[in-house]
UniProtKB/TrEMBL annotation, chain A:
Region (Disordered): 1-24
Protein name: ABC-2 type transport system permease protein
Organism per entry: Actinacidiphila yanglinensis
Lineage top rank: taxon: Bacteria
The keyword Membrane appears for this protein: yes
Transmembrane intervals: 52-74, 80-105, 126-147, 153-178, 198-217, 259-278, 343-361, 381-400, 412-434, 446-463, 484-506, 518-539
Keyword Protease: no
Keywords: Membrane, Transmembrane, Transmembrane helix
Compositionally biased region (Low complexity): 1-11
Automatic annotation (TrEMBL), chain B:
Main localization, broad class: membrane
GO biological process: response to antibiotic
Membrane topology: Peripheral membrane protein
GO molecular function annotation: ATP binding; ATP hydrolysis activity
Protein name (database record): ABC-2 type transport system ATP-binding protein
Origin species: Actinacidiphila yanglinensis
Domain called ABC transporter: residue spans: 45-275
Keywords attached to this entry: Antibiotic resistance, ATP-binding, Nucleotide-binding, Transport
Length: 560, 295
C-alpha cells in the first residue's frame, strides 16, 4: 500500500489548517481508537447468538481463572515463596502477551497497522491511541487481575502499597507495548500466506505448550524443586516487567535502592519497546506493500535451488532418479511446507513424545512408547486425501502396477525415515529414564511391528477408503460428510493393525508366561523383520488395487 | 475437471472400462475399431459411444468423435455442456460408464503406458502440487514420467524461459498468479513432449500478456506436428486459434469438423455456435423501458 498522507513525506508537514498540532490531535485520535476498539469488541460478540454465548463463557472462565489466580497469589502473601511466584507470574504474562499476536493476529483488526496506512495519522499520536486501546478488553482485564494479585502478595507497608500501583501500570504497559511491537514487526509476515500457515499450527503449540507447563509444574511441586524455582527467579526479578513487580517486594524489604533500579529498568525497557514499535510502525506505514512490487529475479525466495536435490547427493544417481526416491523427496518437502501435513506430523511427533514423557514423570509403563509408533504410523492413512485434487498429476503418471507400488513405497519410506529413528530414540530414552532397560528390546520390537502393521494397513486404507481433507482447516481432518469415514479409518485401522501385531505380542507373552526371560531380546529382531515383511507384502498387495482405482481415488479426494 | 465425482454410481451392472482392458471394458464395440482407415495414420483422438451419468443427470450422453492428428482443435459449448467431463474421461482421469476412447490408436483404459506417455493434460479446477516451486514441480513431474534427469533439467530451463517464468522459478506455486499457474501447468504438460495435448480452459482468468505467451507456445507446438485439444467459452479465441472445432450442447456433440465447415453460412463462429446450441440472440423487447435514464 503506498501512502499519500503526511507520513509519506517522511518528515512532518508544515502545520496548516488541515494538520493541527500534535497536542490537539492526540486526544481525539485516542478517543476514536478507544471507541473503535469497543465497537470491534461489541460487533464481534454480536455476530451470532452462538458466538455471544461462547464469548461470554470464554471470558467468564478466563475471569474466574484470573480471580482464582489473583486470590491464590494473595493467599501466598507472607509465604517465603510469594516473591518467586509473583515474579514468575509477571514473566509468564509478558511471554503470553508477546506471543499472542503471532497466533491470533486475524482476531483483532486493530492489530494490523497497514489498515491505517491510508489515514493521515502521525505515528506518535497513533502509538498513544493504539496503546490506550490495547488496555481495553478481556486480556488486559485478566492481566490486571493477575498482576494485582501478584503485587498484593508481595506488598507490605505503606511504601510497598504506593509502589504497587505504578508497578501494575508498568506491567500492563510493557505487556501491551510488547504485544503491539511484535504485531507491527511481524505484520508483513502475519498478513502473508506464510503467516496464515503459521497460524494453523498455533492451536497445536498452545495445546502441547499447556501440557508441557502442566508437566513441569507437577514435576516441580516437590519441595526440593521449589528451591530451583527460587534460583531461577533471582534472575527473572531483574527482567522487566517482572522487575517492576519485584520492586514492590524490594520496597517492602526496605531495599529502596534496589527498588528504584528495578523500576528504572522497567521504565527504560518500556521506552525501548515503544521506540522499537514507533520505528517499525513508521517504516511499515511508509514503505509500499510487497504485493504491489514486482519481485526482482534475484530477490525471489530460493525454495528449490538449482543444486541437485538432497537425495541425489546422498544416493547413487540411478536410485535418486527412481520413482520411489522422487516420491520420498516430494513427501519430505510437502511435510515441511504444507500447513495441514505439517500440523498433522507435528501433532504426531509432539503427542508421541508427550505420552512417554507423562509415563516418565508419573513413573508409568514403558509400553506407553507404543503410542509413539501408533501416532506416527497413522500418518500413513489417507495419504492421497492430503494431496487433494493434485492427485491427478500422480494418476496421470502412473502407467503400471510397478509405478503404483513405487508411489506407495516412496510414501512409506518417507514415513519410516522419520518414524524409525524417532520411535527408537523415544523408546530407548523412556526405558532408560524409567530404569527399565531390560524391557527395551520387547517394547521396541512391539513398536516396530505396530509401525509396520500401520504402514501396510494405512496404504490399503488410503487406496480403498480415501476421503477429501478440508483445505482451509489444519485440524478439521475431513470435509463435511466424511466424519464417519475418518472415524472408520482411524479406529478400524488401529484395530486391524493391532490384530496384525498379535504374532509378535503372542511371542512376547509366551516368553513371559513360560519363563524364558533370557530370550525376550528376540522380540526385537523378530518384530523388526515382521514389520518389514508386513510393509512389503502390504504395499505389494495394495499396488494393483491402487492402479485399478486411480479415477475413483481422484474423485474421492478432489473435494472443495 | 472439477466435475470428477461420483464415478461409482449408476453403472447399471455394465462392465466398466478398466486399466486391464483384457478383463473388462468395452472391447469389440462394432465397426470403426481400426484406427486411421483412411490415411493409414491413426487419428489423434477417436471416441465412440462415450457416456457418463452423475445421479439423474446425464453429463455426457453418447459422444462419437474423430480428430485427425496435427490439428489445433477447439471443444466449445455453454456451461454444463459436458466439456470438462468429456476431457476428464478422454484423459483417463474419470471412468466413463461406457464407451471407447483411443488416443493415437491406443485404448486409454487397456494401454495406459502407451497413452499416458503420449498425452499432456492441463485440467481446469484441479490443483497442482502447489507447495513445490515452479522448477521443483517440473523436475518431479519429469522424474515421475521417467525422463532422464539431464533432459528434465534442460527442458525445464527452456520451458521456464519461454513461458517467462524464469524469475519466479524458485517461488512456490501457491504464491503464483492465475496466469503463472496456467503457464507452469502447461510447462508440466509439455515436458515429456506429448503427441496430443488436452487443455481445459487454458485461457480462463489469464491476463493478455500471459495469454499471448501461451498462444505462442501452442502455435509452435502444433506447427511441429503436435495436436492440441482445448475447451473454451471464448468463440473469438477459438476462431482465431483453431482449424478444427467440436461444438457440445447438453452432453452431445452437435457439430464437428474443420472450422470453415462448422461455421458454414454464419458470419462468425459465435453466430454458428448460438444457432447450433439453440440460443440465438433473443430480442430484448420486454426491456423497452431500459436506457436513457428515468422518464
Amino acid at each position: 500500500m503506498t501512502v499519500s498522507g503526511p507520513l509519506a513525506t517522511g518528515s512532518p508537514l508544515p502545520p496548516g489548517p488541515a494538520a493541527p498540532a500534535p497536542g490537539e490531535r492526540a486526544a481525539p485520535v485516542t478517543a476514536t481508537f478507544v471507541r473503535l476498539k469497543l465497537a470491534v469488541l461489541r460487533n464481534g460478540v454480536r455476530q451470532s447468538r452462538g458466538r455471544t454465548v461462547s464469548w461470554c463463557i470464554g471470558v467468564g472462565l478466563a475471569m474466574l481463572y484470573a480471580l482464582g489466580n489473583g486470590a491464590g497469589m494473595i493467599a501466598l502473601r507472607g509465604s517465603v515463596y510469594a516473591p518467586a511466584a509473583a515474579v514468575t507470574m509477571a514473566a509468564v504474562l509478558a511471554i503470553g502477551w508477546s506471543v499472542m499476536p503471532l497466533f491470533f493476529f486475524g482476531g483483532d483488526d486493530t492489530l494490523d497497522p497497514t489498515r491505517l496506512a491510508m489515514l493521515p495519522l502521525r505515528p506518535r499520536p497513533l502509538i498513544v491511541a493504539l496503546l490506550t486501546s490495547s488496555m481495553i478488553g478481556a486480556g488486559p482485564l485478566f492481566t490486571l487481575l493477575v498482576g494485582t494479585g501478584a503485587v498484593v502478595a508481595v506488598a507490605h507497608g505503606v511504601a510497598g502499597t504506593v509502589v504497587a500501583v505504578p508497578a501494575v501500570i508498568l506491567l500492563l504497559a510493557i505487556c501491551a507495548a510488547l504485544s503491539r511491537g511484535v504485531a507491527a514487526a511481524n505484520t508483513r509476515l502475519l498478513t502473508s500466506r506464510k503467516g496464515r500457515d503459521l497460524a494453523l499450527l498455533s492451536g497445536l503449540i498452545v495445546a502441547v505448550g499447556a501440557q508441557l507447563v502442566n508437566l513441569a509444574l507437577s514435576s516441580l511441586s516437590s519441595h526440593h524443586d521449589l528451591h530451583r524455582v527460587t534460583s531461577v527467579t533471582s534472575v527473572l526479578r531483574w527482567i522487566p516487567p517482572a522487575s517492576a513487580v519485584d520492586a514492590v517486594q524490594s520496597v517492602s524489604d526496605g531495599a529502596y535502592g534496589r527498588a528504584a533500579a528495578q523500576l528504572a529498568l522497567a521504565v527504560i525497557v518500556l521506552a525501548v519497546v515503544l521506540r522499537w514499535w514507533y520505528t517499525t510502525l513508521h517504516r511499515l506505514m511508509m514503505s509500499p506493500d510487497s504485493s504491489t512490487l514486482q519481485p526482482a529475479p534475484d530477490s525471489t525466495e530460493r525454495k528449490g535451488s538449482s543444486r541437485p536435490p538432497l537425495l541425489a547427493r546422498l544416493l547413487p544417481a540411478r536410485w535418486a532418479a527412481s520413482r520411489t526416491a522422487t516420491v520420498t523427496e516430494r513427501q519430505f518437502r510437502y511435510v515441511a511446507r504444507d500447513p495441514r501435513l505439517r500440523a498433522s506430523w507435528a501433532t504426531g511427533l509432539a503427542v508421541g513424545l508427550l505420552l512417554p514423557l507423562v509415563a516418565v514423570v508419573q513413573h508409568g509403563s514403558v509400553y506407553q512408547c507404543l503410542w509413539t509408533a501408533g501416532l506416527l504410523g497413522l500418518q500413513m492413512y489417507n495419504q492421497f486425501g492430503m494431496d487433494n485434487s493434485a492427485f491427478w498429476t500422480i494418476a496421470a503418471t502412473i502407467t503400471s502396477r510397478q509405478d503404483a507400488e513405487a508411489e506407495l513405497r516412496g510414501r512409506a519410506l518417507m514415513l519410516s525415515a522419520v518414524a524409525l529413528p524417532y520411535v527408537t530414540v523415544v523408546t530407548c530414552a523412556t526405558a532408560l529414564l524409567l530404569g527399565k532397560t531390560g524391557a527395551l528390546p520387547e517394547v521396541l520390537g512391539m513398536g516396530l511391528a505396530f509401525l509396520g502393521a500401520l504402514i501396510s494397513t494405512g496404504a490399503y486404507a488410503s487406496v480403498r477408503f480415501p476421503y477429501t481433507v478440508a483445505q482451509d482447516n489444519a485440524f478439521g481432518n475431513a470435509a463435511p460428510g466424511n466424519g464417519s469415514l475418518v472415524a472408520f479409518n482411524a479406529l478400524g485401522g488401529s484395530v486391524v493393525a493391532s490384530a496384525f501385531c498379535l504374532p509378535v505380542l503372542g511371542l512376547d507373552l509366551a516368553l513371559h508366561l513360560t519363563g524364558h526371560h533370557a530370550l525376550l531380546w528376540t522380540v526385537l529382531p523378530i518384530g523388526a523383520v515382521y514389520a518389514l515383511a508386513l510393509s512389503v507384502v502390504g504395499l505389494r498387495f495394495t499396488a494393483p488395487r491402487m492402479f485399478e482405482r486411480l479415477p475413483e481415488i481422484l474423485s474421492a479426494v478432489s473435494g472443495p | 475437471m472439477g466435475e470428477a465425482h461420483g464415478t461409482e454410481r449408476n453403472t447399471g451392472g455394465r462392465p466398466l472400462p478398466s486399466y486391464y482392458g483384457d478383463r473388462a471394458g468395452p472391447a469389440g464395440r462394432g465397426a470403426g475399431q481400426q484406427p486411421g482407415e483412411a490415411s493409414g495414420a491413426p487419428p489423434a483422438l477417436r471416441v465412440r459411444g462415450l457416456r457418463k451419468r452423475f445421479g439423474e443427470q446425464e453429463a455426457v450422453a453418447g459422444i462419437d468423435l474423430e480428430l485427425p492428428a496435427g490439428h489445433f482443435a477447439g471443444l466449445v459449448g455453454p456451461n454444463g455442456a459436458g466439456k470438462t467431463t468429456t476431457l476428464s474421461m478422454v484423459t483417463g482421469l474419470l471412468r466413463p460408464d461406457e464407451g471407447l476412447v483411443e488416443i493415437v490408436g491406443r485404448d486409454v483404459w487397456s494401454d495406459p503406458v502407451g497413452v499416458k506417455s503420449r498425452i499432456g493434460v492441463l485440467p481446469e479446477g484441479l490443483r497442482l502440487f502447489e507447495r513445490l516451486s515452479g522448477r521443483e514441480l517440473l523436475t518431479f513431474t519429469g522424474r515421475l514420467r521417467g525422463l532422464p534427469v539431464r533432459d528434465v533439467d534442460l527442458r525445464a530451463t527452456q520451458l521456464l524461459d519461454v513461458l517467462d517464468l524464469s524469475a519466479a522459478q524458485h517461488k512456490l506455486v501457491v504464491d503464483y498468479s492465475t496466469g503463472m499457474r496456467k503457464k507452469i501447468g502447461l510447462a508440466a504438460a509439455l515436458l515429456h513432449n506429448p503427441e496430443v495435448l488436452f487443455l481445459d480452459e487454458p485461457f480462463e482468468g489469464v491476463d493478455p500478456v500471459s495469454a499471448q505467451v501461451i498462444r505462442g507456445v501452442l502455435e509452435r507446438y502444433t506447427a511441429t506436428g503436435g495436436t492440441v485439444v482445448f475447451s473454451s467459452h471464448v468463440m473469438e479465441l477459438v476462431e482465431s486459434l483453431c482449424d478444427w472445432v467440436a461444438v457440445m450442447a447438453a452432453g452431445r456433440i452437435v457439430a464437428h469438423g474443420p472450422l470453415a465447415e462448422v461455421r458454414g453460412e454464419a458470419g462468425t463462429l459465435q453466430d454458428a455456435f448460438l444457432s447450433l446450441v439453440g440460443a440465438d440472440r433473443r430480442s430484448a423487447g420486454d426491456l423497452d423501458w431500459l436506457g436513457g435514464g428515468p422518464k
